Structures are given as structure tokens and as C-alpha cells.
């Protein structure tokens, strides 16, 4: 991939992140935006988040159907990430309801600031 193509791929990342610290059924939520190349938006440490996100492989992939997951409950937090990632449309729901979902949450935890992560 040439440099111009790489810049266009990074630039085509624009996300809307909504975090419900007490679960989606509760009204309290935190909302952030993040754009890459140049880094912008309201997400804290967005430049570092852009760098980590660009290095990730399939960061918004769901847990495969039929996957055996540990029954480790991580909390009520939920998040929804929508927008574009590397030019592709993204709509990914995250929770902490079991071991598989905890692993997904932790892979992109840099998108969910500590205040929502540590309740």
C-alpha cells in the first residue's frame, strides 16, 4: 500500500462511541467522537487511540456464534460504536456479560475511558 492510500484508509475512520456505565436500560450515558488523520473528536487520548485502533485486527468483530464462553461477569457496562473504520461501516455492541464479551471489551478498552470502565 502506498503512503497516500494508507493516509486515506486512516482518514476514513470516524467513530461515535456511546457508553452506558450502568447498562443500556439506564438513562445515564457518556458520548464521545473520534476521528483519525488528523486525530480529532472528544475522546480523551484520541491520538493514541487512533494509533492502537489502526494496529488492531478486526477490533469490532463479534464473538463467533457457538463460541463457548466462561461465565465471568464483568459488570453492567455496555457500549455502542458506530461510524466508519478504515472506510467500512461499523455498528458494534460491547458488554461485559461473560468471558468472551469481556475479552472483546478489553481489546478496544482504550475507546471506553476509565470512568466508564472502572465502575
If you average the pLDDT, what whole number results?
88
State Rg: 15 Å
Residues in β-strands, percent: 25-35%
Unreliable stretches (pLDDT < 50, length at least 5) are: none
User: How do the strands line up in the largest sheet?
Assistant: 3-2-1-4-5
Alpha-beta content class: alpha+beta
Order of helices and strands: HEEEHEEHH
Number of helices: 4
> How many strands, which pairing sense, and closed or not: the largest β-sheet?
5 strands, antiparallel
Our measurement of the CA-to-CA distance between the termini, rounded to an integer number of angstroms, reads 42 Å
Oligomer: single chain
Helical amount among residues, as a percent range? 25-40%
Count of extended strands: 5
Which descriptor suits the 3D outline?
A: globular
Explain this structure to me?
The protein is about 25% helix and about 25% strand. The mean pLDDT is about 90. The protein has a five-stranded antiparallel beta sheet. It has helices spanning about 5-10, 45-55, 100-105, 115, and strands spanning about 15-20, 30-35, 40, 80-85, 90-95. With about 120 residues, the protein is an alpha+beta fold.
Amino acid at each position: 500500500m502506498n503512503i497516500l492510500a494508507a493516509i486515506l484508509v486512516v482518514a476514513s475512520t470516524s467513530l461515535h462511541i456511546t457508553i452506558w456505565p450502568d447498562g443500556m436500560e439506564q438513562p445515564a450515558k457518556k458520548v464521545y467522537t473520534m476521528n483519525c488523520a488528523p486525530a480529532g473528536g472528544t475522546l480523551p487520548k484520541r491520538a493514541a487511540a487512533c494509533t492502537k485502533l489502526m494496529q488492531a485486527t478486526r477490533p469490532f468483530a463479534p464473538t463467533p456464534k457457538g463460541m463457548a464462553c466462561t461465565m465471568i461477569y464483568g459488570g453492567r457496562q455496555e457500549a455502542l460504536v458506530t461510524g466508519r473504520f478504515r472506510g467500512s461501516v461499523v455498528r458494534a455492541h460491547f458488554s461485559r456479560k461473560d468471558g468472551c464479551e469481556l475479552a472483546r471489551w478489553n481489546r478496544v478498552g482504550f475507546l471506553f475511558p476509565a470512568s466508564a470502565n472502572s465502575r
